UniProtKB/TrEMBL annotation:
Its main location: membrane. The keyword Membrane applies. This is Carbohydrate ABC transporter membrane protein 1, CUT1 family. Keywords: Membrane, Transmembrane, Transmembrane helix, Transport. The chain crosses the membrane at residues 12-36, 70-89, 101-123, 149-175, 196-218, 259-280. Pfam families: BPD_transp_1. GO terms for biological process: transmembrane transport. InterPro entries: MetI-like, MetI-like_sf, Sugar_ABC_transporter. It is found in: Cell membrane. It is a multi-pass membrane protein.
Length: 289
């Protein structure tokens, strides 16, 4: 007896496919079109082939921006992941204070990115900002518009303040999923606090931590609004990350061909990193299973 296959379900998925094609695929194809052509306006295009890709690969500007971007993302992960785990471990596990902490940790995530940048831009000003005024009163020379170190510290602390709570919430969810029997067995064996964390909590949190690392890396790798509002990419090009450099190239200089090639290479790097994280997460699930 042959099994009847009903293909009508595709009609339910069709609107989603059309929406994705309109919002993602078509703009991507437009970028690909610009990346292999040159234009002098008036909607006239000339075939350029891989010229823009070769130019970007030889561009010190792009490699410098990539280096700053990788350094920023690395610092962010090195701070936010351990800090988020520490916060989650010290949060109440149940009761009123647990709910209170969860709500409190969620508040920074609800603030729009441009508002976060504006808050820290004002907060760090020496004349009217609480942070800048306090540091100046203590005799500390702090000016994120002129000093490179101050600019980097500002955008890093801003990102840590904004996004550490996401890591903490994910880690807290992983901790909540651990059965009490594990802790009871560890208590019977008189395991130390470090061993409980090392052999019980950390392995059980590994899945959500991989998700947290993936999300935070991707967000930090594509960050634009917050550092642009605070420093504008300065002083000089000290905080000009990949996304800021790309926008300057496309909109500031109107170099559409190089900017399109730049954005495709940017996209491929993100896609590659996402694939690596997906592979690692899949292997972890198989190992646990």
């Amino acid at each position: 007896m042959e099994k009847t296959v009903n293909q009508k379900a595709w009609f339910l998925v069709l609107p989603v496919l059309l929406l994705v094609a309109f919002s993602a695929v078509i703009p991507l194809m437009t970028v690909v079109n610009y990346s292999v052509q040159d234009t002098f306006g008036n909607n006239q295009f000339f075939w350029a082939g891989l010229e823009w890709f070769e130019e970007m690969l030889r561009s010190e500007r792009m490699w410098d921006a990539l280096g700053r971007q990788l350094m920023f993302s690395g610092i962010i992960l090195a701070i936010e992941i351990p800090l988020g785990i520490f916060v989650a471990l010290n949060m109440p596990k149940s009761g009123f204070w647990s709910s209170f902490c969860l709500v409190l940790m969620s508040l920074p995530l609800l603030i729009p990115w441009n508002v976060v940048g504006t808050i820290w831009q004002i907060f760090g000003r020496v004349d009217i900002g609480l942070l800048g005024y306090t540091l100046d009163a203590l005799g500390i020379n702090y000016n994120y518009t002129q000093d490179i170190l101050a600019a980097w510290v500002t955008i890093i602390v801003m990102d840590v303040w904004h996004w550490t709570s996401l890591v903490a919430l994910l880690a807290f969810a992983g901790l909540k999923s651990i059965p009490d029997a594990y802790y009871q067995a560890a208590k019977i064996d008189q395991a130390s606090r470090w061993k409980v964390f090392r052999f019980i909590e950390l392995p059980k949190m590994m899945g959500v931590l991989m998700i947290a690392i993936l999300l935070r890396f991707m967000d930090s790798f594509m960050i634009y609004t917050e550092p642009f509002v605070v420093t504008g990419g300065g002083p000089g090009n000290a905080t000009t990350l990949l996304s800021i450099d790309l926008v300057k190239m496309a909109l500031g200089q109107f170099d559409l061909g190089p900017a399109a090639a730049f954005s495709i290479m940017y996209f491929l790097v993100i896609l590659l990193i996402s694939w690596v994280f997906y592979t690692v997460m899949t292997n972890l699930d198989k190992r646990e299973g």
